[in-house]
UniProtKB/TrEMBL annotation:
Coiled coil: none annotated. It comes from the Eukaryota. It is found in: Membrane. Residues 2-28 form the Trichome birefringence-like N-terminal domain. InterPro entries: TBL (IPR029962), TBL_C (IPR026057), TBL_N (IPR025846). The keyword Transmembrane applies. It is a single-pass membrane protein. The lineage of its organism: Eukaryota, Viridiplantae, Streptophyta, Embryophyta, Tracheophyta. This is TRICHOME BIREFRINGENCE-LIKE 34. One of its GO terms (cellular component) is membrane. One of its GO terms (molecular function) is O-acetyltransferase activity.
Length: 327
């Protein structure tokens, strides 16, 4: 469990956020069965590739799966500080990995701990440094959204090591599309569709403006304990233009013979304004005086408490994995 997501451990008292499930209109999701999933993953490798939201989903999946493993010696976890974290269920020889690549392509934010810089720079055509770690997996679950959310991103044609590269400021939606095209071209060449199943999680919404759901101006998810009950609600933390770009790239990839299934988690997560850690998480630095007097200024309304919303995402993913296996 990540201390960034362990809300109850860090003092959250209202715990209803842990118990919601998602009920689609036109079907019933299969109940998650960790043993059945591990059987599907026997002698296989599943890897989550992306940012800290995808890492949260990986933590969720590891918790859900490990709950059916009764012998602690039958589980193995390896994290040496690199981009790759490995969980292994030894009896099944099943591996569930997480790989840090918040922008999917190479960037100056690729270090898993030291990645906060005033200028975000991407090598928009370079992905091999990351992709060689996960290309041969049986199931790959991608995400990439929040790290692109700025008007322009600096793109580099050249390498970080040499000084003769060309830098260009590119409009965000365009550079996002270019990165997804680089990913899709790599997958088209290097992935065997008969072996590897590909998934892409849609954008995870944020709840940083309470006025969007009828709350108080200049407040956010801090203090929220109930869901948004207006069906179809969307906040400004979600960008439909980026969703359309992703859909178009995946359609193009499918037309070229490789299917990557988008799992649309956006709308169901929009309702969950109470599902974020807010202030109930590990503080990585000293809490400032103004953050004590005004807790909402220090609230995390981006990530999700666990247990919680990412478990629902994994239940959807589980349904698709079962469906792929049976077909």
């Amino acid at each position: 469990m990540s201390d960034q997501l362990a809300c109850e451990k860090f003092g959250r008292k209202d715990l209803s956020y842990k118990f919601w499930r998602w009920q689609p209109h036109t079907c019933d999701l299969p109940r998650f069965n960790g043993t059945k999933l591990l059987e599907r993953l026997r002698n296989k490798r599943m890897v989550y590739v992306g940012d800290s939201l995808n890492r949260g989903q990986w933590v969720s999946m590891v918790c859900m799966v490990s709950s059916v493993i009764t012998n602690p010696k039958a589980m193995y976890m390896h994290n040496n500080g690199s981009n790759l974290i490995t969980f292994k269920a030894l009896e099944y020889n099943a591996t569930i990995d997480y790989y840090w690549a918040p922008l999917l392509v190479e960037s100056n934010s690729d270090d898993p701990t030291n990645h906060r810089f005033p200028d975000r720079i991407v090598r928009i055509q370079s992905i091999e440094k990351h992709a060689r770690h996960w290309t041969n997996s049986d199931i790959i679950v991608f995400n990439s959204y929040l790290w692109w959310r700025m008007p322009h991103i600096k793109s580099l044609w050249g390498s970080f090591e040499k000084l003769d590269g060309i830098y260009k400021e590119v409009e965000m939606v365009r550079v996002y599309e270019m990165a997804l095209q680089t990913l899709s071209q790599w997958l088209e060449v290097h992935v065997n569709p008969n072996i590897t199943k590909l998934f892409f999680m849609s954008m995870s919404p944020t709840h940083e403006r309470a006025e969007e759901w009828g709350g108080i101006l200049n407040q956010n998810c801090y203090g929220e304990a109930s869901l948004i009950d207006k069906e179809g609600y969307t906040g400004r933390g979600s960008d439909p233009k980026m969703m359309r770009v992703l859909e178009n790239v995946l359609d193009g990839l499918k037309n070229r013979g490789l299917n990557m299934q988008m799992i649309n988690i956006t709308q169901l997560s929009e309702y969950r304004k109470e599902g974020h850690p807010s202030i109930y998480r590990k503080q990585w630095g000293t809490v400032k005086e103004n953050e004590i007097s005004n807790p909402s200024s220090n609230a995390d309304c981006i990530h999700w408490c666990l247990p919680g919303v990412p478990d629902v995402w994994n239940e959807l993913l589980y349904a698709y994995i079962l469906d792929h296996h049976s077909s």
